[in-house]
From TrEMBL:
The chain crosses the membrane at residues 12-30, 99-122, 134-162, 174-194, 235-261, 281-307. This is Glutathione ABC transporter, permease protein GsiC. It is a multi-pass membrane protein. Keywords: Cell membrane, Membrane, Transmembrane, Transmembrane helix, Transport. It comes from Bordetella pertussis CHLA-26.
Length: 319
């Protein structure tokens, strides 16, 4: 098990390091001059030259990278060129808000997706199964931005039940705080739940036809016991693994939802950084998403190995 974990950790380190190099090179290749972003477009050549010298922008590219990477390893992500604030707190604040959406959406997606998948499998071929499949197909066919716009128009515009956009802190009141989270979370859930439902349904159908489930039924066990103690436990293995990956997908793909709902999370901050050419914020934000996605993959590998030891030992035998 330890060798398996060490090997997976090595993969995470390699992916993050490779992405750090790629992020730095891409941001350096973006058009525009950082010095002009700081000093303004009407700055004199002397002012621009002074800023370039202070920031080391004329140094070789590899020197700039090692300076940036070394500072990042010590927790110093630099200063925002536009907002004038340290990048670390900016990223952590926005990341915390995005993580709130992602965790809430993932929890609801897991509960609803597993429930619907089990019901569809148990009622295979009946009206419940067909209804759930129709819902899944509809959910998969609709892009998230369209779901978000429909929710805004219907729930906020027509019915007036919830605020259309924005965010308030918990200190403003639990009801107000929760009301600003409902539609963004629902949009994320509707975008993912069909995938989890379909996977859980397929896994449950496969498990229900397994020999050990038939043997349990032949022993006269109650159907509820067969379903939940024997079938569901094994049918959850692929679903739990995919849910760990979905958290990384949520954190990486939350930009659309945050933009539509004007939610001040990491995705919206990255859009702002691109528009304003705020390279320190952009570099740190994309690196944070990379780390989260890599850790989500690691969590999925570990969950799969714990739930199904054959994966763990199979990997050890082949390396």
């Amino acid at each position: 098990m330890w060798a398996y974990l060490v090997r997976r950790l090595g993969h995470v380190v390699f992916v993050v390091a490779a992405m750090a190099v790629l992020i730095f090179l891409i941001t350096q290749a973006m058009p525009g001059n950082v010095a002009y972003t700081i000093a303004g477009h009407f700055a004199s050549p002397e002012q621009v030259a002074a800023i370039e010298a202070r920031l080391g922008l004329n140094d070789p590219l590899w020197t700039q990278f090692w300076r940036w990477a070394g500072a990042a390893l010590h927790g110093d992500m630099g200063q925002s060129l536009v907002m004038g604030r340290p990048v670390g707190p900016l990223i952590s604040e926005a990341l915390g808000r995005s993580a709130l959406l992602a965790v809430a959406a993932l929890a609801l997606t897991a509960a609803l997706g597993i429930f619907l998948g089990v019901v569809a499998a148990v009622r295979h071929g009946r009206w419940q199964d067909r209804l759930i499949l129709a819902f899944s197909w509809l959910s998969i066919s609709l892009p998230q931005f369209l779901i978000a716009i429909v929710l805004v128009l219907l729930v906020a515009g027509t019915l007036g039940w919830l605020p259309a956009t924005g965010y308030v802190e918990l200190s403003a009141g639990f009801g107000a705080w929760l009301s600003h989270l409902v539609m963004p979370v629902c949009t994320l859930v509707l975008g993912l739940v069909a995938h989890v439902t379909s996977l859980q349904r397929s896994s449950m159908l496969e498990t229900l036809s397994a020999l050990y489930v038939r043997a349990a039924r032949a022993k006269g066990l109650r159907e509820r016991t067969v379903l939940y103690r024997h079938a569901l436990r094994n049918a959850l293995i692929p679903t739990v693994t995919v849910l760990a990956l979905d958290f990384g997908i949520l954190m990486g793909g939350i930009v659309v939802v945050e933009t539509v709902f004007s939610y001040p999370g990491l995705g919206r901050l990255l859009i702002f950084a691109v528009e304003q050419k705020d390279l320190p914020v952009l570099q740190a934000g994309v690196l944070a998403v990379t780390v989260i996605y890599a850790l989500a993959n690691l969590a999925a590998d570990i969950a799969y190995a714990i739930l199904d030891p054959r994966i763990r030992y199979g990997n050890l035998d082949t390396h």
